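Q: Got a minute? One more chain.
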Amino acid sequence: RFVLGTYEIMDRLTNAAPYKDKQQISPRFIAQVDAAYELQLLTGYENGQFQPQNTATRAQAARVIYSFLQK
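A: Always. Here it is, folded:
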């Protein structure tokens, strides 16, 4: 059910992710990143970047999974 809700959100996004380096995110994943941002699963770095070329740490992955399970 949550995954289907995510797709519904992708169709009616109101807050595009404001990442300074958004142009580095693959166009094929922009909608998913925006949806994850709106669902507060992703917040990005304190400097306002998403850094899509970086590998996520275990702590970052754990935070996303934890946030997902709280929804």
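A: The helical segments are 2-11, 30-38, 58-70.
Q: Perfect, thanks.
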